[in-house]
Amino acid sequence: MRKNDARVRYTQRVLKESFLSLLREKPVNKITVKEVCELAELNRATFYAHYSDCFALMESIEQELLDAFGQSLRLIDGFDVSALIAALYTMVEQHGDACRVLIFGGASPSVLGRMIDLARPSSIAAWKHQLHHASDAELEMLYTHLSNGLMNVVVGGYDKYSREEVISFVNRIVKSSLSLFR
């Protein structure tokens, strides 16, 4: 059984790597199963044993990123922006190829929105305990503002700025924003 699990993981990894390679060149709706299989040196039956089509393969890759991000969120306090940024950088390091194609390359803009939505409940809950003067609507607007800005700083600045520069900058912005409600 273990050997089989290793084969499955290998096959899925090769299919994902081949798909991401093609996704660098063209959009998902222009990629065929045949192209993925040729690049992966696997037959179509093998592909269909794992995925129904290229969109399902892309969804699988996106879900891996979201799962990794979700795992990172469980390990941090929603009020600790430094830890959140460190978690984002760790996720990018662990899933570099997928992040570079889907997020940084813009092949799947919905992934960022889904990450922002994933962090929303825990962040707002943590803020409610700290920011007693803020209304629910204000916390929602603050989260939208900070989360979108944070994601754009990380995505736009990943290759420009060091992790430490981003953490320092975002901490200053967050402290300034949160001070409005204390």
UniProtKB/TrEMBL annotation:
Transmembrane segments: none annotated. Residues 9-69 form the HTH tetR-type domain. InterPro entries: Homeodomain-like_sf, HTH-type_Tx_Regulator, HTH_TetR. The keyword DNA-binding applies. Keywords: DNA-binding. It comes from the Bacteria. PROSITE patterns: HTH_TETR_2. Residues 32-51 bind DNA. GO terms for molecular function: DNA binding. SUPFAM superfamilies: Homeodomain-like. This is HTH tetR-type domain-containing protein. It comes from Porcincola intestinalis.
